[in-house]
Protein backbone atom coordinates (compact mmCIF):
# COMPACT_ATOMS: atom_id res chain seq x y z
CA UNK A 1 0.00 0.00 0.00
CA UNK A 2 2.80 2.38 0.88
CA UNK A 3 4.51 1.62 -2.40
CA UNK A 4 1.36 2.62 -4.27
CA UNK A 5 1.42 6.04 -2.55
CA UNK A 6 5.17 6.68 -2.87
CA UNK A 7 5.52 5.69 -6.53
CA UNK A 8 3.19 8.45 -7.90
CA UNK A 9 5.06 11.06 -5.84
CA UNK A 10 8.40 9.94 -7.21
CA UNK A 11 6.98 10.03 -10.71
CA UNK A 12 5.70 13.59 -10.24
CA UNK A 13 9.10 14.77 -9.03
CA UNK A 14 10.82 13.23 -12.04
CA UNK A 15 8.38 14.83 -14.48
CA UNK A 16 8.64 18.24 -12.82
CA UNK A 17 12.41 18.25 -13.37
CA UNK A 18 11.79 18.30 -17.14
CA UNK A 19 9.35 21.23 -17.04
CA UNK A 20 10.71 24.71 -17.94
CA UNK A 21 11.50 27.07 -15.07
CA UNK A 22 9.78 30.48 -15.12
CA UNK A 23 11.22 33.01 -12.61
CA UNK A 24 8.83 35.39 -10.85
CA UNK A 25 9.19 38.93 -12.19
CA UNK A 26 9.01 41.87 -9.82
CA UNK A 27 7.75 45.21 -11.09
CA UNK A 28 10.63 47.57 -10.33
CA UNK A 29 9.17 50.61 -12.11
CA UNK A 30 8.95 53.70 -9.92
CA UNK A 31 5.56 54.93 -8.79
CA UNK A 32 4.04 57.25 -11.35
CA UNK A 33 3.00 60.74 -10.32
CA UNK A 34 1.16 63.49 -12.15
CA UNK A 35 1.91 67.14 -11.62
CA UNK A 36 -0.21 70.15 -10.69
CA UNK A 37 0.68 72.84 -13.25
CA UNK A 38 -1.96 75.49 -12.52
CA UNK A 39 -2.73 77.39 -9.34
CA UNK A 40 -6.45 76.63 -9.64
CA UNK A 41 -6.35 72.82 -9.80
CA UNK A 42 -9.34 71.80 -7.72
CA UNK A 43 -9.44 68.67 -5.56
CA UNK A 44 -12.94 67.20 -5.13
CA UNK A 45 -14.00 64.62 -2.59
CA UNK A 46 -16.34 62.97 -5.14
CA UNK A 47 -16.92 63.38 -8.88
CA UNK A 48 -20.40 64.74 -8.15
CA UNK A 49 -19.19 67.67 -6.04
CA UNK A 50 -19.51 71.14 -7.52
CA UNK A 51 -17.42 72.85 -4.84
CA UNK A 52 -13.82 71.72 -4.40
CA UNK A 53 -12.53 70.51 -1.09
CA UNK A 54 -9.48 72.70 -1.69
CA UNK A 55 -6.98 73.71 -4.38
CA UNK A 56 -3.83 71.64 -4.67
CA UNK A 57 -0.39 73.16 -4.09
CA UNK A 58 1.05 74.47 -7.35
CA UNK A 59 4.03 72.56 -8.89
CA UNK A 60 3.56 69.53 -6.61
CA UNK A 61 2.29 66.06 -7.51
CA UNK A 62 -0.58 63.66 -6.96
CA UNK A 63 -0.54 59.90 -7.27
CA UNK A 64 -3.05 58.68 -9.89
CA UNK A 65 -5.10 55.68 -8.80
CA UNK A 66 -7.54 55.35 -11.69
CA UNK A 67 -8.75 57.43 -14.61
CA UNK A 68 -12.53 57.68 -14.53
CA UNK A 69 -13.64 59.64 -17.57
CA UNK A 70 -13.15 63.37 -17.14
CA UNK A 71 -11.77 62.86 -13.65
CA UNK A 72 -8.82 60.97 -12.24
CA UNK A 73 -9.02 59.33 -8.85
CA UNK A 74 -5.86 60.46 -7.07
CA UNK A 75 -4.04 60.44 -3.79
CA UNK A 76 -2.67 63.83 -2.90
CA UNK A 77 -0.87 63.35 0.37
CA UNK A 78 1.19 60.78 2.17
CA UNK A 79 3.27 62.18 4.99
CA UNK A 80 5.22 59.83 7.21
CA UNK A 81 4.12 56.71 5.36
CA UNK A 82 0.46 57.22 6.20
CA UNK A 83 -2.25 56.78 3.59
CA UNK A 84 -2.88 59.84 1.47
CA UNK A 85 -6.10 61.75 1.18
CA UNK A 86 -7.91 60.49 -1.91
CA UNK A 87 -10.20 62.47 -4.17
CA UNK A 88 -10.78 63.53 -7.78
CA UNK A 89 -9.09 65.98 -10.13
CA UNK A 90 -9.92 66.91 -13.71
CA UNK A 91 -7.70 64.69 -15.86
CA UNK A 92 -6.83 67.45 -18.31
CA UNK A 93 -5.30 69.55 -15.52
CA UNK A 94 -2.72 66.93 -14.56
CA UNK A 95 0.63 66.80 -16.31
CA UNK A 96 3.10 63.95 -16.72
CA UNK A 97 6.52 65.60 -16.76
CA UNK A 98 8.33 62.24 -16.84
CA UNK A 99 10.81 63.39 -14.21
CA UNK A 100 12.01 61.29 -11.29
CA UNK A 101 10.05 62.27 -8.20
CA UNK A 102 11.54 61.84 -4.75
CA UNK A 103 9.26 64.00 -2.60
CA UNK A 104 6.01 64.42 -4.56
CA UNK A 105 3.87 66.05 -1.87
CA UNK A 106 4.25 69.33 -0.07
CA UNK A 107 5.43 68.65 3.48
CA UNK A 108 4.23 71.57 5.54
CA UNK A 109 2.88 72.15 9.02
CA UNK A 110 0.94 75.25 9.97
CA UNK A 111 1.09 76.69 13.48
CA UNK A 112 -1.86 78.34 15.16
CA UNK A 113 -1.05 81.90 16.20
CA UNK A 114 -4.00 82.15 18.58
CA UNK A 115 -6.85 80.04 19.86
CA UNK A 116 -8.56 78.69 16.77
CA UNK A 117 -11.28 76.36 15.56
CA UNK A 118 -10.98 73.46 13.14
CA UNK A 119 -14.17 73.40 11.05
CA UNK A 120 -15.60 70.44 9.17
CA UNK A 121 -17.18 72.53 6.39
CA UNK A 122 -15.84 75.34 4.23
CA UNK A 123 -18.65 77.63 5.44
CA UNK A 124 -17.08 77.43 8.91
CA UNK A 125 -20.32 76.42 10.59
CA UNK A 126 -19.50 72.96 12.02
CA UNK A 127 -16.66 72.93 14.58
CA UNK A 128 -14.61 69.76 14.78
CA UNK A 129 -12.20 70.80 17.51
CA UNK A 130 -11.05 73.88 19.36
CA UNK A 131 -7.31 74.49 19.21
CA UNK A 132 -4.91 76.31 21.49
CA UNK A 133 -2.13 78.52 20.16
CA UNK A 134 1.11 76.92 18.92
CA UNK A 135 -0.63 73.76 17.70
CA UNK A 136 0.74 72.05 14.56
CA UNK A 137 -1.56 71.21 11.66
CA UNK A 138 -0.64 69.27 8.51
CA UNK A 139 -1.37 71.24 5.37
CA UNK A 140 -3.24 69.90 2.33
CA UNK A 141 -4.37 72.91 0.32
CA UNK A 142 -6.20 76.23 0.36
CA UNK A 143 -9.61 77.57 -0.55
CA UNK A 144 -10.99 81.09 -0.95
CA UNK A 145 -14.38 81.75 0.57
CA UNK A 146 -15.68 85.24 -0.01
CA UNK A 147 -12.93 87.62 1.02
CA UNK A 148 -11.01 85.24 3.25
CA UNK A 149 -8.64 82.33 2.66
CA UNK A 150 -9.01 79.10 4.58
CA UNK A 151 -6.66 76.12 4.76
CA UNK A 152 -7.57 72.45 4.70
CA UNK A 153 -5.53 70.67 7.37
CA UNK A 154 -5.45 67.73 9.72
CA UNK A 155 -4.92 67.74 13.45
CA UNK A 156 -4.64 64.45 15.31
CA UNK A 157 -6.11 62.72 12.23
CA UNK A 158 -9.09 65.07 12.22
CA UNK A 159 -9.65 66.92 8.98
CA UNK A 160 -11.02 70.43 8.59
CA UNK A 161 -10.50 74.08 7.79
CA UNK A 162 -8.79 76.88 9.70
CA UNK A 163 -8.84 80.58 8.95
CA UNK A 164 -5.77 82.23 7.47
CA UNK A 165 -5.87 84.79 10.29
CA UNK A 166 -5.58 82.03 12.91
CA UNK A 167 -2.18 80.72 11.78
CA UNK A 168 1.24 82.25 11.40
CA UNK A 169 2.12 83.49 7.90
CA UNK A 170 3.93 80.98 5.72
CA UNK A 171 4.99 80.44 2.13
CA UNK A 172 5.23 77.37 -0.07
CA UNK A 173 8.35 77.03 -2.19
CA UNK A 174 7.97 75.50 -5.65
CA UNK A 175 8.83 71.84 -6.03
CA UNK A 176 12.53 71.32 -6.84
CA UNK A 177 11.66 69.75 -10.21
CA UNK A 178 11.56 72.36 -12.95
CA UNK A 179 8.37 72.81 -14.91
CA UNK A 180 9.48 71.24 -18.17
CA UNK A 181 6.45 72.39 -20.16
CA UNK A 182 7.42 76.03 -19.72
CA UNK A 183 9.86 77.51 -22.26
CA UNK A 184 13.12 78.68 -20.81
CA UNK A 185 13.66 82.41 -20.64
CA UNK A 186 15.85 83.62 -23.52
CA UNK A 187 19.25 84.95 -22.49
CA UNK A 188 19.24 88.66 -21.92
CA UNK A 189 21.22 90.68 -24.45
CA UNK A 190 23.91 92.82 -22.96
CA UNK A 191 23.60 96.50 -23.80
CA UNK A 192 27.02 97.65 -24.91
CA UNK A 193 27.85 101.30 -24.43
CA UNK A 194 30.37 103.08 -26.63
CA UNK A 195 32.66 104.86 -24.22
CA UNK A 196 34.18 106.98 -26.99
CA UNK A 197 30.81 108.34 -28.08
CA UNK A 198 30.04 109.15 -24.47
CA UNK A 199 33.26 111.12 -24.15
CA UNK A 200 32.56 113.00 -27.39
CA UNK A 201 29.09 113.96 -26.17
CA UNK A 202 30.51 115.24 -22.91
CA UNK A 203 33.13 117.29 -24.75
CA UNK A 204 30.46 118.84 -26.97
CA UNK A 205 28.38 119.79 -23.95
CA UNK A 206 31.38 121.45 -22.27
CA UNK A 207 32.20 123.37 -25.47
CA UNK A 208 28.64 124.68 -25.76
CA UNK A 209 28.65 125.81 -22.13
CA UNK A 210 31.98 127.60 -22.56
CA UNK A 211 30.72 129.36 -25.70
CA UNK A 212 27.64 130.58 -23.87
CA UNK A 213 29.73 131.82 -20.96
CA UNK A 214 32.16 133.61 -23.32
CA UNK A 215 29.30 135.25 -25.24
CA UNK A 216 27.82 136.48 -21.97
CA UNK A 217 31.13 137.99 -20.87
CA UNK A 218 31.61 139.77 -24.22
CA UNK A 219 28.09 141.19 -24.09
CA UNK A 220 28.66 142.46 -20.56
CA UNK A 221 31.93 144.18 -21.49
CA UNK A 222 30.36 145.88 -24.52
CA UNK A 223 27.46 147.11 -22.46
CA UNK A 224 29.76 148.64 -19.83
CA UNK A 225 32.05 150.45 -22.32
CA UNK A 226 29.29 152.02 -24.40
CA UNK A 227 29.14 155.88 -23.88
CA UNK A 228 25.71 157.49 -23.57
CA UNK A 229 24.73 159.88 -26.39
CA UNK A 230 24.62 163.60 -25.34
CA UNK A 231 21.16 164.97 -25.84
CA UNK A 232 20.74 168.48 -27.42
CA UNK A 233 18.68 170.78 -25.27
CA UNK A 234 15.59 172.23 -26.85
CA UNK A 235 15.90 175.99 -27.36
CA UNK A 236 19.71 176.04 -26.87
CA UNK A 237 21.17 179.25 -28.31
CA UNK A 238 24.54 179.17 -30.04
CA UNK A 239 25.75 182.53 -31.39
CA UNK A 240 27.91 180.81 -33.90
CA UNK A 241 24.80 179.58 -35.64
CA UNK A 242 24.13 183.17 -36.74
CA UNK A 243 26.65 184.76 -38.84
Structural commentary:
With 243 residues, the chain is of the alpha+beta class. It is built from 2 helices and 13 strands. A hairpin with a 2-residue loop joins strand 4 and strand 5. The longest helix has 31 residues, at 195-225. The model is unreliable at 13-28 and 231-243 (pLDDT under 50).
Q: DSSP strand (E) fraction? A: 25-35%
What strand order characterises the main sheet? 6-5-4-1-7
Largest sheet: 5 strands, antiparallel
**Overall number of strands:** 13
Number of helical elements: 2
Order of helices and strands: HEEEEEEEEEEEEEH
From the spread of the alpha carbons, the general shape counts as elongated
- Regions with pLDDT < 50 over 5+ consecutive residues? 13-28, 231-243
> Could you report the average pLDDT, rounded to the nearest whole number?
78
Q: Which key features would you list for this structure?
A:
243 residues; alpha+beta; five-stranded antiparallel sheet; 19% helix; elongated
Which SSEs are present, and which pair or pack?
Blueprint: H1 2-16, E1 34-36, E2 42-43, E3 54-55, E4 61-68, E5 71-75, E6 86-90, E7 94-95, E8 109-111, E9 116-119, E10 127-131, E11 136-145, E12 148-155, E13 158-163, H2 195-225
Quick structural gist:
With 243 residues, the chain is an alpha+beta fold. The chain contains two helices and 13 strands, in the order αβββββββββββββα.
Amino acid sequence: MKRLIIMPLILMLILSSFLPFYPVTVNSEPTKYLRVITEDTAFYKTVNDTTPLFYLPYTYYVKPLKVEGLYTHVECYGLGGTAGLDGYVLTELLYDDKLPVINPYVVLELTTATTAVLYRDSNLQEPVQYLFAERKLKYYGSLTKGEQIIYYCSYNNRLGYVRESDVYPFSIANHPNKLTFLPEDPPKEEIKTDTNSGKDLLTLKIAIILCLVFAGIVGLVVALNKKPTKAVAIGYYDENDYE
